[in-house]
Write a structure and sequence with these properties.
The complex is a heterodimer of chains A (about 290) and B (about 160).
Chain A (H helix, E strand, L loop, with lengths): L3 E3 L4 H9 L4 E4 L5 H6 L7 E4 L4 H4 L1 E3 L3 E5 L4 H5 L2 H6 L1 H8 L4 H4 L4 H7 L5 H8 L3 E6 L2 E6 H4 E3 L2 E2 L6 E8 L5 E8 L10 E9 L5 E9 L6 E2 L1 H7 L6 H14 L10 H24 L2
Parallel strand pairs in A: 1-3, 2-3
Antiparallel strand pairs in A: 4-5, 5-10, 6-7, 6-10, 8-9, 11-12, 12-13, 13-14
Helix pairs in contact in A: 6-9, 11-12, 12-13
Chain B lengths: L3 E7 L2 E7 L5 H9 L17 E4 L2 E4 L12 E3 L12 H8 L9 H14 L5 H7 L11 H18 L1
Parallel strand pairs in B: 1-5
Antiparallel strand pairs in B: 1-2, 3-4, 3-5
Helix pairs in contact in B: 2-5
The chains are: A alpha+beta (about 290), B alpha+beta (about 160).
């Protein structure tokens, strides 16, 4: 087998490597890529390890918000108390991925680039208005998280492009997020359905802004503006939560597979939306 | 294709080995370095048998590329005991009969050491969640959990 291992130390070097070889693959945690590679599903000519590039593994939080290096491990994210405080839903989504061992390897950038419709972090990124920082031969560009994945296993990355970091704006006052997924066991499984919600409340408890996203119910995670609209202007009472749930169920266009039927997934998309909105609202109240 | 020359630190010893570019750290440890205590189970990161500590972080060696070890520090099951003196976890695994066939045991010991390094006095729930990525088809887990909790309890009481 003729395959190279490359460990560039700068983003420019990494971009040059993948731009000059269309079959080179970016290698971060390897928890998806190496499994696919050994199963014969991918035959890369080179594995480009990006974990020696400092800005890809760095996690920084400043007045603007979070800059999460695409190759920072889930374990490092889980140990970042400020990140967990500001974005508890995002931290929960990251924590749900795999075992302790997998947490030591898996990355949020890899979770996005693997483009699974059931990826746990995608909903949490979308509701937090995350922006993907992409480097390529023609420089840098920024893409909203909800536009990054285009189909199962497909992203909008073009040849020679690399996901460098994810930027998440600092939450507005009395804003909080939550993420929930349904699996038939307590952990280490792939979501049957996932849902993320972020809400902003005013001083009197009225919802002034919201974002809702659902996963594993369409080829990509979906932002559901109708569900957000059902929440905005309300006190997140039963009626509003019910309408948001209906909007998520209506937006879902799931398949039936071994993890669940279309009808079940549609229903659960609504249930999780409602529960998530309740948790996010409770957190926002405490801020 | 030429093999890659790697210089790393394994169980505190500066170590060099040759590996294929796409080879896992697991096969390099077992075949090139000769440390066969780290076991091969699923090779897909699901079973925990190949657990090692890489730069202080618990990882599945099957999902680490061998060349990644360049300049890093690796701790394997062979580095857990202090010479002939068993690590307290190893002693407690024996006392509690926390193993039968033994294939998962090195992974459990390494993972449990990482747990106690990070959290010297874990609850049973924390221990069960931490070790959920280590599969054992013999014991039913209970004796393993008891061995880890007993290790923590006796170390805490020793310190007091």
């Amino acid at each position: 087998m003729n395959i190279r291992y490359e460990a560039p130390q700068t983003v420019d070097q990494a971009v040059r490597l993948i731009a000059s070889d269309p079959n080179a693959k970016i290698f971060a945690g390897g928890t998806d890529l190496l499994v696919q590679f050994r199963a014969g599903l991918r035959q890369p000519t080179a594995l480009v390890d990006v974990k020696r590039i400092p800005e890809l593994t760095r996690i920084t939080i400043d007045a603007e918000g979070l800059r999460l290096g695409a190759a920072a491990s889930a374990a490092e994210i889980g140990e970042h108390s400020e990140l967990k405080r500001l974005w508890p839903g995002l931290a929960e989504a990251v924590h749900l991925i795999g075992s302790t061992q997998i947490q030591g390897r898996a990355t949020v950038g890899g979770n996005l680039c693997n483009a699974s419709p059931a990826a746990d972090t995608t909903c949490a990124l979308i509701v937090n208005q995350a922006q993907c920082v992409i480097a390529g031969p023609r420089g840098e560009r920024i893409v909203a998280a909800e536009q990054f994945c285009t189909a199962p296993g497909k992203t909008m990355l073009e040849r020679g492009e690399l996901l460098v970091a994810i930027r998440v704006p600092r939450p507005a006052p009395r804003t909080a997020d939550a993420y929930l997924r349904l699996i038939p066991r307590t952990e280490m499984d792939i979501a049957v359905v996932g849902a993320g919600v972020s809400v902003t409340l005013d001083a009197s408890g009225v919802c002034t802004a919201a974002r809702v996203a659902v996963a594993a119910v369409a080829p990509t995670a979906l932002l559901v503006p109708d569900a957000a609209r059902a929440l905005i202007g309300t006190r997140l009472d039963e009626a509003a939560l019910g309408l948001a749930a209906e909007a998520s169920s209506a937006a879902a266009r799931p398949i039936s597979d071994k993890r669940g039927t279309m009808a079940y997934r549609r229903t659960i998309a609504g249930v999780l939306t409602k529960r998530c909105a309740t948790i996010a609202a409770q957190r926002a109240t405490e801020r | 294709m030429a093999k890659i020359h790697i210089e790393t630190t394994i169980n505190g010893e500066p170590t060099e080995f040759l590996c294929e570019p796409h080879e896992s750290l697991l096969t390099a440890l077992r075949n090139a370095v000769g440390l066969t205590g780290t076991k091969e189970g699923c090779t897909t990161g699901d079973c925990g048998a190949c657990s090692v500590i890489l730069d202080g972080r618990l990882v599945p060696a099957c999902l680490v590329l061998a060349p990644e070890a360049q300049g890093r520090t690796v701790v394997t099951i062979e580095g857990i005991a202090d010479g002939e003196q068993l690590h307290p976890l190893q002693q407690k695994f024996l006392e509690h009969a926390a193993l039968q066939c033994g294939i998962c045991t090195p992974g459990f010991i390494v993972a449990a050491k990482a747990l106690l390094d990070a959290n010297p006095n874990p609850t049973e729930e924390e221990t069960r969640y931490w070790l959920a990525g280590n599969l054992c088809r013999c014991t039913g887990y209970d004796k393993i959990i008891r061995a880890v909790l007993d290790t923590a309890a006796s170390r805490v009481s020793t310190r007091v």
